[in-house]
Amino acid sequence: xxxxxxxxxxxxxxxxxxxxxxxxxxxxxxxxxxxxxxxxxxxxxxxxxxxxxxxxxxxxxxxxxxxxxxxxxxxxxxxxxxxxxxxxxxxxxxxxxxxxxxxxxxxxxxxxxxxxxxxxxxxxxxxxxxxxxxxxxxxxxxxxxxxxxxxxxxxxxxxxxxxxxxxxxxxxxxxxxxxxxxxxxxxxxxxxxxxxxx
Length: 198
Hints:
The chain is of the alpha/beta class. The protein contains six helices and ten strands.
């Protein structure tokens, strides 16, 4: 297909499909190496070091593994929150809940490990944003920090009224998830402040 004739939606679907294929083709060794590099890099990142609160995610399926990093955050005494999808319907939203041990994780939305019922919910306070780090997954990323997720807009919705937190957002993934061309963006799309691919 001539990319000049592609619609924005078609291009987004193509980028998503191609990035997922590349990600799923990675070997176990490539995944483990990337996860190790990511953990080492983030543990030395000033945003992680200076943050009291980490809004992380649990790598699932072919996503970059994050459990070691999350475990280190807990070991260092940081407040760790991970996402939980509420009301798995067309109007579902994503919220973050406190995790004190990785063993508390249970399969939730689409089998993704989530915090348990009754865990404390993250409450955004603008004055605490400088001591908070938001880690974001994604399917594809371009050279302008544009991020393509799975299509439900969970992170875009979550960040829509949290401009201070947007400045402490960091997306992570594999190098193979970088697109060759720009990702068509929609008005509601929010770019992470940094993208680190391993």
